[in-house]
TrEMBL record, chain A:
Source domain of life: Bacteria
Segments forming domain Cytochrome c-552/DMSO reductase-like haem-binding: 25-414
Signal peptide: 1-20
GO molecular function per UniProt: heme binding; metal ion binding
Keyword Cytoplasm among UniProt keywords: no
Keyword DNA damage among record annotations: no
Keywords of the record: Electron transport, Heme, Iron, Metal-binding, Signal, Transport
Protein name per its UniProtKB record: Cytochrome c-552/DMSO reductase-like haem-binding domain-containing protein
Pfam families in UniProt: EB_dh (PF09459)
From TrEMBL, chain B:
Name recorded for this polypeptide: C-type cytochrome
Keyword list, A-Z: Electron transport, Heme, Iron, Metal-binding, Signal, Transport
Record bears the keyword NAD: no
Entry binding sites for heme c: C44, H48
GO molecular function, one term: electron transfer activity
Listed Gene3D superfamilies: Cytochrome c-like domain
PTM comment text: Binds 1 heme c group covalently per subunit.
Organism domain of life: Bacteria
One Pfam family recorded for the sequence: Cytochrom_C
Length: 437, 117
């Protein structure tokens, strides 16, 4: 496949509506830019923020004060991020050279059909993070190759850091208690992957809530889903959680992924409640490793792209997306595989994505060290796992960028911000989406 | 009016002295940049803004409280070096932050800046 920048027709994006703007033709020069500072939060979990380690602030955070009631001084975000990223009490495994701070430019617009959210940020690397983990043949077996930089094998220098870039938006319509004050930090807890007191398999197996939803690790959750918000091991009943969801007590989580969704012009659609969950339907990506043999399920179609697999020498040279309907064929175990052959660990498909999980589209390009991503989300979604965007309304949002081959807490994040859709003059919001002509 | 060479050199010496006096903290002059840097490094701005109430009173309010009181400087320095109990708006008490310097010049400079707000 050729270099980045995907040019997809409106039809390919599934945006056929007569009233929708062509997102590729929006004149962004006319849309105001909001600079949102993003900083590296390390392990500043819900629990840490409420402990005496957060000096003279635990009481205020517990009673629900906004982070920015105190952290609003000049360059607050830059100072916190640059300090934490170097390592110390909130970062036990610092990543050499990682930036503690990023400027995120945010613009927003809408028309009768969609909201358009445009983001720009600079990458630490001189290439776009469109590579994701691979399955690599070691002469005998296929094994996952390349890991996020906070993982041990990378820290010990045994594996290269490979993980897709991401831009995430957490969105609340005012129904999640406390999100308007403390934003994403409601969802970040001890016990999660890469956080203090990380879960063990046995602990997860002993948790009725996680076993009832068939999960084997601990991810983002809202305080309301636990009987003790600071202890993931407690949990409300599935019925109680269904009630919270029906009452809108969940966050929408939109993630644009530079490999697994960008390849097909989409952003994924999930939500945070008792776990970080995918919306109903089917995601645009799925695992490409066979459960039993760990060999790939699909490989590249040599007739179309000229190769069945790549090697490490081809990394960062072009886009290495394996797309079911474009360039993939079933894996042939007898194709004379050699040590070092690599096939993507994920299969991507626009055609297979369905239902609520397939709501969000995206157009993105990387140029001269900068990502430009436009996320396109239909207005007025009615799925029970979506927050409906409506003209005139105001939302609480948090933003995050995962840059330079990293996942979990290795992101730069924003304090809580407000997003309005064409709000009337006098209503104060950080970002106001303008109505397109 | 024209100055003799001697008068001109006297004038420049005077000017140099005046500049020096401004640069070093005296009873009336402080180094604002140094004061702010010290306050920032010690998280003072997380609880005090210049012109609005946060967890602690604004520096303007503190300055107003001590206006015209000769022991203001001394009291303020005590407040930030001794961990004295301070009262919060919700009626509870907590030990005040202790600044991480004992240098009397630095302390004096910071407090003079606060009291000038």
């Amino acid at each position: 496949m050729k270099k980045t920048a995907l040019f997809l027709s409106l039809a390919a994006l599934g945006l056929g509506s007569a009233f929708a703007a062509d997102p590729a033709k929006i004149n962004w020069a006319k849309v105001p830019v909001t600079q949102v500072p993003l900083f590296y939060p390390g392990q500043s979990t819900y629990e840490w923020l409420r402990s005496d380690e957060h000096k003279n602030a635990a009481k205020e955070v517990k009673r629900g004060d906004a982070c920015t009631a105190c952290h609003d001084e000049e360059s607050a975000e830059k100072d916190i991020g640059n300090k934490i990223v170097k390592g110390g009490r909130l970062e036990p495994t610092p990543i050499p050279g990682k930036s503690g701070y990023k400027d995120l430019k945010v613009q927003a617009a809408y028309d009768d059909s969609n909201a358009y959210l445009r983001f720009q940020w600079k990458t630490d690397n001189p290439y776009p993070g469109t590579e994701h983990q691979y399955l690599r043949f070691d002469g005998k077996e296929w094994k996952v190759w390349g890991f996020p930089k906070l993982d041990k094998p990378v820290q010990q220098g045994k594996e290269p850091g490979i993980y897709e870039d991401r831009l995430s938006v957490m969105l609340d319509d005012g129904k999640v208690p406390g999100f308007n004050k403390q934003g994403c930090w409601l969802t970040c807890h001890d016990g999660q992957r890469d956080n203090p007191k990380q879960f063990t398999k046995e602990e997860v197996a002993a948790n009725p809530l996680l076993t009832s939803i068939k999960k084997s690790d601990v991810r983002k959750y809202l305080p309301e889903t636990r009987t003790d918000p600071s202890n993931w091991k407690t949990g409300k009943t599935v019925e109680e959680i269904a009630k919270l969801k029906a009452d809108g007590h969940f966050l929408d989580l939109i993630q644009w992924r530079a490999h697994r969704s960008h390849a097909v012009g989409m952003a994924d659609d999930g939500y945070v409640l008792e776990f970080r969950l995918s919306d109903s339907g089917r995601d645009m990506f799925s695992g490409n490793s066979d459960n039993a043999t760990h060999a790939p399920k699909f490989m590249w179609d040599e007739k179309k792209v000229g190769y069945k697999s790549i090697t490490a020498l081809q990394l960062h040279k072009g886009d290495h997306f394996l797309i079911r309907e474009q360039n993939a064929v079933p894996f042939d175990p007898n194709a004379g595989w050699k040590e070092g052959d690599m096939i993507p660990d994920y299969l991507i498909s626009r055609e297979d994505a369905m239902g609520s999980a397939a709501d969000n589209k995206a157009i993105a390009s990387w140029k001269e060290g900068m990502w430009t991503v436009v996320i396109i989300r239909p207005l007025g979604l009615t799925n029970d796992d979506d927050k409906a965007l409506k003209p005139g309304a105001v939302y609480n949002v948090g933003f995050a960028v995962h840059d330079d081959n990293i996942t979990t807490r290795g992101h730069q994040v924003s304090f809580e911000k407000t997003l309005g859709l064409g709000v009337t003059k006098g209503t104060k919001v950080d970002i106001n989406a303008v109505k397109l002509p | 009016m024209s100055h003799s060479p001697r008068a001109r050199s006297l004038l420049s010496t005077l000017l140099a002295c005046a500049t020096l006096a401004l640069a070093t903290p005296t009873a009336t002059a402080f180094d604002e940049a140094a004061a702010k840097a010290l306050a920032k490094q010690n998280d003072c701005f997380k609880c005090h803004a210049v012109d609005k109430t946060k967890k602690g009173p604004s520096y303007q309010k503190i300055a107003a409280k001590y206006k015209g009181k000769p022991d203001g400087e001394e009291k303020a320095i005590k407040n930030i070096t001794m961990g004295q109990k301070v009262k919060l708006e919700d009626g509870t008490e907590e030990d005040h932050k202790i600044i991480d310097t004992k240098d009397p010049k630095e302390l004096k400079n910071l407090v003079q800046w606060i009291l000038a707000q």
